[in-house]
Amino acid sequence: MSPLSRRKLIRTALGAAAGVSGIAVAARLAERNGLTPPEWHGIYGPGDTMTYAAQRLLTRHSMAREFSRDRISKAPFAHPVSPPTGEFKRLQAGGFAEWRLTIGGMVARPASLSLAEIRSYPSRSQITHLACEEGWSYIAEWIGAPLFRVLDAVGVLPQAKYVVYQSIEKGSSDSMDMADALHPQTILAYGMNGGELPVAFGGPLRMRVARQLGYKNVKFINRLTVTDSIKDFPPDGEYSWYAGI
Ligand SMILES: Nc1nc2c(c(=O)[nH]1)N[C@H]1C(S)=C(S)[C@@H](COP(=O)(O)O)O[C@H]1N2
Ligand SMILES: [Mo]
Hints:
Elements: H1 3-17, H2 23-32, H3 46-59, H4 87-93, E1 100-105, E2 111-114, H5 115-119, E3 124-131, E4 137-146, H6 147-154, E5 162-167, E6 173-177, H7 178-181, E7 186-192, E8 195-196, E9 206-209, E10 221-227
Parallel strand pairs: 1-10
Antiparallel strand pairs: 1-2, 3-4, 4-7, 5-6, 5-10, 7-8, 7-9
Helix pairs in contact: 1-3, 2-3
Bound molecules: the ligand Nc1nc2c(c(=O)[nH]1)N[C@H]1C(S)=C(S)[C@@H](COP(=O)(O)O)O[C@H]1N2 and molybdenum atom (MO).
């Protein structure tokens, strides 16, 4: 069964479990079991809750599919983003030597890491599929530092629930829960298809969260904030906060 039709089936099953009283009851059930997306009473509806709950129940520890080298897309299509200007251009002219990833919030040791420092972590390389919600996709090899290693180094406090990641590009940030933040396939990507990560694809540093849709893979990452609430960090787009695939 395709992942999509399986997801549909799961949602239907959870919906059926709620019986005549409808999907909202199933959503409350999910909430009691710690399966709701954050602040769903405010921003997210029962539909989002059902997707999140079903995914978290069934795929909490599962891995996104990885492909063999011959499946790498011949011409990966970079989604056109307005090229960052100002500060980004200045850093680019300097070969990104002054690029920093600032890490703060609920961590024991706030940090400001250079790309060289991020490269010094044991790296992970994976060939995965990046899918835009608009319908196109490609397969590429991504190389980077697993986010969990960096979080481990700064010491995430026990009450932390989310990691907010921000781009140097204004208005481009997102967040994920700890299950995704600590997942082995979630990496701070600095390389692609054997070379450096091109700027068109988010270089010098991009969040690569293999288990979620394209828009969660924010480009030009320069700040991480560990937090127990994303109320102050509303998602930028109009898309669903949880975009599991
Ligand atoms: N900073 C930034 N990151 C971004 C975007 C953006 O506009 N700005 N677009 C997102 C969307 S909607 C998608 S589908 C992917 C596209 O990634 P690609 O260029 O590697 O295809 O990047 C995501 N990351
Ligand atoms: Mo997208």
